[in-house]
Hints:
The mean pLDDT is 87. The chain starts with a helix and ends in a 13-residue tail after the last helix. It has one domain (2-118): Tetratricopeptide repeat domain (Serine Threonine Protein Phosphatase 5, Tetratricopeptide repeat). It is 60% helix and 7% strand. The chain is built from eight helices and two strands. The chain has a two-stranded antiparallel sheet with strand order 1-2.
Amino acid sequence: MRLVDQGREYFKLMGEFYRINAGIEHVNCMVDLLGRAGLLEEADDLLKKSVFKDDLSLLAALLGACTSYSNLNVAGCVAKKMMELEPENHLSYVLLANVYKVFNQWDDAEALLKLMKDRGVKKIAGKSWIDIKDKGSNLDLDNSDSLQKGIFPPLEINFES
């Protein structure tokens, strides 16, 4: 927790001593720091007091931490807020459903995913970026035809330096 305390201190000094208003990147850093440390209520409180309390990227960072630490209370509040702000965004539905599943609340997870479907919310397929000989390549996980047709060449991985 020493690094968390240090982060809190720097954040406090920034505003109180240096008179620097926290930007979204500073709040994001603190939400991420607190979330990774499992201090979800503190991260939620910080976000609620922030001028950026309605920023979806900050809410998503907090909701992701709730998924990692299985905090149903904060996850429910954050996901509800995200659904109010942007009901067509799939992330809040999927992450909250995952938290429900951790708590064996399968009916709630299923109901939430049904709500997502009823609202016409589509889950965006995952994508991965890989570098091959200093060239970026996009591997579209939703397009399995590309893999089956051999469009992506097999990777030769050399673990020697």
